[in-house]
Amino acid sequence: MKSAIDWPPRLVLPLLLLAGLLAMNFTTWLTLSVAGVAMGMMLFLMASGLTLIFGLMDVITFAHGAFVSLGAYVATDVVARMPELAASGSWPASLSVLAAAIAVAIVVTGLAGWVFEVVIIRRVYGSHLRQILITVGGLIVAQELLVAVWGANPIPVAKPLALQGSVEILGAAIEIYRLVAVGLGLAVYGGLYLILARTRLGLMVRAGVENIEMVESLGFRVKRLFVGVFIAGCALAGVGGALWGIYQGLVTPAIGPEMMILVFIILIMGGMGSVGGAFIAAILVGLVTNYTGFLLPKLALGSNILLMVGILLWRPRGLFPLVKS
Amino acid sequence: MDDALLNLAGVVTNIGAYHILHGVDLTVRRGRVTMLLGRNGAGKTTTLRSIMGLWKPRAGSVRFDGAEIAGSETPDIARRGIAYVPETMGIFSQLTVAENMRLAATTSRFDEARLEDVFRFFPILKTKWHDRAGLMSGGQKQMLAVARAIVEERRLMIIDEPTKGLAPSVIDDLIACILEQKARGTTILLVEQNFHMARSVGDDVAVMDNGRVIHAGSMADLAGDESLQTRLLGLSLDSHQ
């Protein structure tokens, strides 16, 4: 496809990696970079659904964090029910435990997302204020439901045995679980890219992001598409929650909502509604968190806010803004 | 078989607190080009959007081939074989020309002969097939908008001011395209301010003012009666090319 490529936003990530390399020795840089990319991938999984929901449906939901928490709890339960496989230490066994946790999280959060769309979201299309008010309420209710089912105490969860520990790559110790997270994040991004770029369904979604009325005038039932995208968005949050919960090792009802500040920073920096933008912005957030944590620890807490401010001063609509008509 | 493919009776449409259509009666006959004329703000675009279900009529009836479609959802109306080209063209600017066309076709595979016909009218679309539609000029986007409507056989084409802001050569291409669709028997409802085009392609005419159809008849009668033109449109067609 011939198009005018907008290079400057594409250079931010390589420049950040290069700046990090110049500021520290190679092994430290490699360790921090892999950790940053892994965190970025888990954040991307949480953000990708939200950006799709906003881009296509023009819906802002603050309840997304609840689906991340739900995914984490479900994964905890699944891992706890497979103790022998989780403790066996073989790669196939450990990966199958992780795959089962993610698969069940997808099903449960997808179903919960469907109920949430039917009961709440469907009533507030077209009104951002009502969306914000009702989804904040929905988040509170959902968190209380999580407490009612799983209790208020943190639930510990161990990584499947083969995914614990680290491997040495080019002299740097890299956590195995982080490599798995990077692989899974890349696979999800690749899958989303293929669906959006190569299928008729993806064509409808991309067209719908620009002009819903015209898509309907061509005979497509966009409302059905909305439900599907909302379910997919919640399922992606569930995958992110499952991975993040197992990575953290301790799951609380707030595990999802705590991540939402970073997720919204990613959405805003990437360009609201842009999946590719969310992918780049998520990696930026992961890297900046790790680099500043090492180089300027006092700045670590606010580093991503500063990054967002800088990017918005440069590009007020984010790195890869969507065009709506 | 009823001569009328589309029939509007007493259609009332409000947009928020504003009453735009006050009881539109309009008949579009099969195989003919019906021009919908009128001053700016007369309610022409609202009439087209009401037919497509993009704004739901509050009262009245919209019958397509005998079936009531007022109150139906837009995709269901479109699936009856109605193509709509809005005034804003509705091009998906981030998609390629090919992807825009693919969305307009019912299946993912094009009717190759039909596609060659489209390229015959608008050869520039073949050249720019893999380009992003947003990078094209206004005239090229309008060609793409009409091309999407003719990529498959339609029972009715509804086109809103296709010549707005276009160069004369592009307008001639559009006229040739619409005349060929008419020759193939496609029924067309066309809103147009360009009277050269209106006279070139129109069989029937309906003139709107203040949310109502105030005149319906043949295009030839209107074109030949200067006093009627002045009374209905506030100007003479001969003096307005």
Please specify the SSE layout and strand pairing.
The complex is a heterodimer of chains A (325) and B (241).
Chain A: H1 7-23, H2 26-57, H3 64-80, H4 83-87, H5 91-119, H6 128-150, E1 155-156, E2 166-169, E3 172-175, H7 176-198, H8 200-210, H9 212-217, H10 222-248, E4 250-251, H11 255-270, H12 275-295, H13 303-314
Antiparallel strand pairs in A: 1-4, 2-3
Chain B: E1 4-15, E2 18-29, E3 33-38, H1 44-52, E4 59-64, E5 67-68, H2 74-78, E6 82-85, H3 97-104, H4 112-121, H5 123-127, H6 138-150, E7 156-160, H7 168-183, E8 187-191, H8 195-201, E9 204-209, E10 212-218, H9 219-223, H10 226-233
Parallel strand pairs in B: 3-8, 3-9, 6-7, 7-8
Antiparallel strand pairs in B: 1-2, 1-4, 4-5, 9-10
Helix pairs in contact in B: 3-6
Key features?
heterodimer, A: 325 residues, mainly alpha, ABC transporter involved in vitamin B12 uptake, BtuC, two-stranded antiparallel sheet, two-stranded antiparallel ribbon, 4 strands, B: 241 residues, alpha/beta, Rossmann fold, 6-stranded mixed sheet, 4-stranded antiparallel sheet, 10 helices
Outline the structure in words.
The complex is a heterodimer of chains A (325) and B (241). Chain A has 325 residues and is mainly α. Chain A has a single domain (9-314), classed as ABC transporter involved in vitamin B12 uptake, BtuC, CATH 1.10.3470. Chain A is 74% helix and 4% strand. Chain A is built from 13 helices and 4 strands. Chain A has helices spanning 7-23, 26-57, 64-80, 83-87, 91-119, 128-150, 176-198, 200-210, 212-217, 222-248, 255-270, 275-295, 303-314; strands at 155-156, 166-169, 172-175, 250-251. Chain A has a two-stranded antiparallel sheet with strand order 1-4. Chain A has a two-stranded antiparallel ribbon with strand order 2-3. In chain A, a hairpin with a 2-residue loop joins strand 2 and strand 3 (172-175). In chain A, helix 2 runs antiparallel to helix 10 and helix 3 packs parallel to helix 6 (128-150). The longest helix of chain A is centred in the first third of the chain and has 32 residues, at 26-57. Chain A is globular, with a radius of gyration of 20 Å. Chain B is of the alpha/beta class and 241 residues long. Chain B has one domain: 3-Layer(aba) Sandwich (Rossmann fold), CATH 3.40.50.300. Chain B is 36% helix and 27% strand. Chain B contains 10 helices and 10 strands. Chain B has helices at residues 44-52, 74-78, 97-104, 112-121, 123-127, 138-150, 168-183, 195-201, 219-223, 226-233; strands spanning 4-15, 18-29, 33-38, 59-64, 67-68, 82-85, 156-160, 187-191, 204-209, 212-218. In chain B, strands 6-7-8-3-9-10 form a 6-stranded mixed sheet, sandwiched between helices. In chain B, strands 2-1-4-5 form a 4-stranded antiparallel sheet, covered by helices on one side. In chain B, a hairpin with a 2-residue loop joins strand 4 and strand 5 (67-68). In chain B, helix 3 (97-104) runs parallel beside helix 6 (138-150). The interface between A and B is medium-sized, with 25 and 29 residues.
